[in-house]
Amino acid sequence: MKARLEGQVALVTGASRGIGRAIALKLADEGASVALFARSAGPLEEVAARIRASGPRALVIPGDVSRTEDAKNAVEKVLADLGRLDVLVNNAGITRDNLILRMRDEEWTDVIDANLRGAFVFCRAVARHLLKQRSGRIINIASIVGLTGNAGQANYAASKGGIIAMTYSLAKELGGRGINVNAIAPGFIESEMTAALSAEVRQGALGRIPSARFGRPEEIATVAAFLAGPEASYINGAVIRVDGGMAIS
Question: Of 156, 188, 214, 226, which is the active-site residue?
Answer without folding.
Answer: 156
